[in-house]
Design brief:
mainly alpha
Length: 168
């Protein structure tokens, strides 16, 4: 009986001691990343990885459904080959390898497409130069020697008069 009380008191004491430790701990909140802490190539590689791996489950599902439908149609719509995502797999090992490799290929294509789009967007941002509004000047048309006055389009009645003049 005394041993149980002693164990109980030790447990309570250790609980209070352990729960007090966080009160005296240093603040270990992570610092946010700086803008130039990582090179752009690593950021691009990480984005490529996230998009490629993130697309894999969805692309695999779509590839499996597309192949199931193709196989169903190829076998004259036999009920044994009917596509069903909730049934156990009836694919051979070679078919499963083909589905997985196709899915991985499509996902890498999606990742590469995003990578190329990001590079193009980044390079087009660098090419845009700010407009210097001091270089812009407006010249009235009456003072511009190279200006040409474009006549307004003719109305139907004026066009008929012109046609009659030409015919005469």
């Amino acid at each position: 009986m005394k041993i149980k009380r002693l164990v109980f008191k030790l447990l309570i004491l250790s609980f209070f001691v352990i729960s007090a430790f966080p009160l005296y701990a240093e603040d270990s909140a992570p610092k946010p990343y700086e803008e130039d802490e990582f090179p752009q190539s690593l950021k691009d590689l990480r984005r490529f990885e996230i998009i490629t791996i993130g697309a894999l489950p969805f692309v695999t599902l779509d590839t499996t459904l597309a192949y199931s439908t193709y196989r169903y149609a190829r076998n004259d719509f036999d009920d044994a080959y009917k596509p069903d995502i909730f049934s156990p797999s009836s694919f051979t090992q070679e078919e499963q390898k083909g589905i997985i490799l196709t899915s991985v290929g499509v996902c890498v294509g999606i990742g590469l497409t995003d990578f190329i789009v990001q590079i193009i967007k980044r390079s087009s941002k660098r090419k845009i130069r700010p407009v210097n509004y001091d270089d812009i000047s407006v010249i009235p048309i009456s003072e511009d020697e190279d200006a040409a006055i474009i006549p307004l389009p003719q109305t139907d009645s004026e066009a008929n008069e012109t046609i009659q003049e030409i015919e005469e």
